[in-house]
Automatic annotation (TrEMBL):
GO terms for molecular function: ATP binding; D-alanine-D-alanine ligase activity; metal ion binding. PROSITE patterns: ATP_GRASP. It comes from Leptospira wolbachii serovar Codice str. CDC. It is an enzyme of class 6 (ligase). This is D-alanine--D-alanine ligase C-terminal domain protein. Residues 114-311 form the ATP-grasp domain. Belongs to the D-alanine--D-alanine ligase family.
Length: 331
């Protein structure tokens, strides 16, 4: 029987609010649809919560193993927003791409992720969670302040590097009016790097990293914006540093129990890498998303990437215990 891929997504356009910066463009979704169809799958694009929930719940239970949902839903505000699709699919016994709901929820919280991974020896900068204007930083200046539960550099600009306590309220108060919690961390002055890990638990593959270069000293929302994408990747990472990042990233994937794919960002300080964050729902644009660009640098095609991620999703469904309850209930 022919398998069907559902591209579950939030669609970005220039009229959407700032908080929708992580949503995928129509061009990306169309490119993914074309690629998946050429791989021999049927494809459906769903972008409304009611529609997604209705279609998934109406797939006959004995046919659900032949469907897979590609999780591109980002939402906004909720700390569970990247876990909507994984939780629903697991509950209904439908395969999906990417990590489980628990991994998605943890990694969206930068502070909790750093605490967890630091306890296992992963190097991260000292950090502090900021929830209200009365929270005063206890870590030394200069420090960097950013939203704790956002991606795509939302809420980040040159002003987020704070040199002294006198500038604290000027930066923190406006951000706290938009974001429920902020992360303050020791400012790291070196270059930024990004790396991807593909695979399911027990069988991970780290894709060689790249430096992320951008104008100015901060990877801001203007750099990351889909309208003005001006970052560039430098794949000339020294061998020892590349090996170190791959080793850390494989360990992080195992500790988190990630599935399918994750992208990790690091930054250097005195030539030593420190983990910035883990992205369990990375972008998949063949034009501007870093994970496909990292994959492409290894000599493989975008089509091979998409096919590999789908195969990993079906593999996870067939073997991971987290689907067992729903499978038993559907008998």
């Amino acid at each position: 029987m022919k398998r069907t891929v559902i591209l579950a997504c939030d669609l970005y356009d220039e009229k959407t609010p700032e908080l929708c910066q992580e949503w995928e463009s129509e061009v990306t979704i169309q490119s993914m649809e074309d690629t998946v169809q050429k791989l021999g799958y049927d494809v459906a694009i769903l972008s409304h919560p009611t529609e997604i929930a209705s279609v998934l719940s109406n797939i006959p239970p004995n046919d659900r193993k032949n469907w897979i949902v590609w999780n591109l839903v980002e939402g906004y505000h909720s700390p569970n927003r990247e876990a909507y699709i994984p939780a629903l699919c697991e509950y209904l016994a439908i395969p999906h791409t990417g990590s489980s709901a628990s991994v998605q929820t943890l990694t969206l919280d930068k502070y909790k992720t750093k605490l967890f991974l630091k306890s296992f020896g992963i190097p991260t900068a000292d950090s502090q969670l900021i929830r209200n204007p009365n929270d005063i930083p206890k870590i030394p200046f200069p420090l960097f302040l950013k939203p704790n539960g956002e991606g795509s550099s939302l809420g980040i600009g040159e002003k987020n590097r704070i040199e002294k306590i006198e500038d604290w309220d000027v930066v923190s108060s406006p951000l706290l009016k938009i974001y429920p919690s902020l992360l303050a961390e020791t400012y790291l002055s070196g270059r930024e790097l990004t790396i991807a890990v593909l695979g399911n638990q027990g069988n991970y593959q780290a894709i060689p990293p790249a430096f992320v270069d951008y104008p100015g000293s901060v990877y801001s929302d203007l750099v990351k914006s889909k309208e003005s994408f001006v970052e560039s990747l430098d794949f000339q990472v020294p061998g020892e540093l590349s090996d170190s990042l791959q080793s850390y990233s494989l360990k992080i994937a195992e500790l988190l129990g990630s599935s399918g794919y994750i992208r990790l960002d690091f930054k250097l300080e005195k030539e030593q890498p420190y983990l910035l964050e883990v992205n369990a729902t990375p972008g998949f644009s063949s034009i501007y998303s870093t994970l496909p660009l990292l994959w492409g640098n290894s000599g493989k095609t975008y089509s091979e990437l998409i096919n590999h991620c789908l195969e990993l999703g079906f593999e996870e469904y067939n073997h991971h215990f987290r689907y067992q309850y729903a499978k038993d209930r559907n008998l």
